[in-house]
Design a protein that fits this description.
Elements (H helix, E strand, L loop, with lengths): L17 H12 L7 E5 L6 H13 L6 H8 L6 E4 L8 H11 L9 E5 L7 H12 L5 E7 L7 H4 L3 E4 L5 H12 L3 H10 L4 H9 L1 H15 L4 H37 L10 H44 L12 H10 L2 H18 L5 H14 L4
Parallel strand pairs: 1-4, 1-5, 2-3, 3-4
């Protein structure tokens, strides 16, 4: 494992992916190794986007000594790197079309123009088809870098036009050590955060530095364990949705306020000034964007809860199969053991199946509250409603 502090720019923030780094370094330095389109896959928190921008920086810079250019790319401020990371549930066709149009511009200052799609798994089939021609016949000196959890998340027609680079999943101990070095957390807190985050580096960092997030996670899982019937299933589902809504609001309010203030400054207005009619339409568009961001924040928050629930029922089925060496939720071991003894493995697997189905349904704009109520009824009964 390479220490980030010892790695050269632009690879300093890439952690635990030495094989992938060597592959991309070779591609950036030798056109014979350089595919025109790449797909970087790996589990959440494995560093897909970090690696994508490091690769973009190495491609755009004129040499390994061109640190200023690389730092610009890493800051997302260089004109030859264009990124698409949607704050909505899906990437829209219009966003994809705008990116494709951008791909036909020649590099303005660097060696290549690089287009990074951070959330390629959020493209529908129609949106993916917009990219096909650009991936088939890219302009000279244009490189595409797509990121997704798995190549199975993309259409076969997309997969056939890219070179796939699969990242490895880090070990809990390695993530804990990284979090300890980055945040100054105690070894105990860092280990618990890495374990509860299931080795997702970003989520582990948040858990290690936010005591309220750690407490909210524990309270939510204890509430799920307390579900005994339809009434408690409905109550707990409402609690989860409300907590996710509050969490999303806390994360987006500051950014929303900054966006609004920036727009007003651009128009020569201060907060509290009368808003001219000509500016009202732009504010209305900004507010719509904020609503879309809030919806994605809510969906992401609920998905994190579902991921935590999957870890809980995964622990239960592991105990039922006689495995106790890799329990994620050790702090709830007593409650987990009780359920493992009371349930059959088939019942636990039914809950896990419905959990996976619920996560998939939420990606297609199913109402979160209804989806969670249905899921928790399954939890309480062992049967899908």
């Amino acid at each position: 494992m390479t220490s980030p502090a010892l790695a050269p720019v632009p690879w300093a923030e890439v952690w635990g992916q030495d094989t992938a780094v060597r592959t991309l370094q070779a591609a950036a330095s030798d056109p014979a190794n350089l595919a025109h389109a790449w797909l970087i896959t790996g589990p959440p928190g494995s560093g897909r986007s970090t690696l994508a921008y490091a690769f973009a920086a190495a491609l755009i810079a004129h040499s390994s000594d061109d640190v200023d250019t690389m730092q610009q790319v890493l800051a997302r401020s260089h004109p030859d790197v264009t990124a698409l990371r949607t704050e909505k549930v899906i990437i829209t066709i219009d966003e994809a079309r705008a990116l494709v149009e951008r791909s036909y511009f020649a590099p303005s200052a660097g060696r290549y123009r690089v287009l990074v799609v951070e959330d390629a798994d959020r493209m529908t089939e129609r949106t993916s088809n917009v990219l096909l021609k650009a991936l088939e016949e890219p302009p000279e000196r244009t490189i595409w870098v797509l990121c997704a959890p798995s190549d199975a998340d993309l259409l076969p027609t997309i997969r056939s036009r890219v070179r796939t680079l699969r990242l490895k999943e880090p070990e809990v101990a390695d993530v804990a050590e990284l979090i300890r070095l980055r945040t100054g957390a105690t070894p105990e807190v860092a280990e618990q955060a890495a374990r509860h985050a299931q080795r997702h580096i970003g989520m582990a960092q948040r858990l290690a530095t936010d005591e309220s997030a750690r407490l909210r996670r524990e309270q939510t899982l204890r509430a799920v364990l307390s579900v005994r019937g339809v009434r408690t299933a409905v109550d707990v589902a409402g609690h989860i949705v409300q907590a996710a809504t509050d969490d999303a609001k806390a994360l987006t309010t500051e950014q929303d306020d900054a966006d609004r203030a920036s727009l007003l400054r651009t128009m020569g207005l201060a907060e509290g000034d009368p808003v001219p009619p000509a500016v009202r339409s732009q504010l209305a568009l900004l507010e719509e964007e904020h609503k879309r961001r809030a919806r994605r924040g809510l969906h992401d928050g609920i998905d994190r809860v579902l991921t935590d629930m999957q870890s809980l029922y995964r622990d239960i089925v592991m105990l039922q199969l006689g495995r106790s060496d890799s329990i994620i939720n050790r702090e709830l071991l007593s409650e987990i053991e009780q359920i493992a003894q009371a349930w059959t493995p088939q019942r636990t697997l039914t809950v896990l199946d419905h959990l996976a189905h619920t996560r998939q349904s939420l990606q297609h704009n199913v109402a979160p509250l209804l989806a969670l109520e249905s899921l928790l009824v399954t939890v309480s009964s062992g049967r899908k409603p």
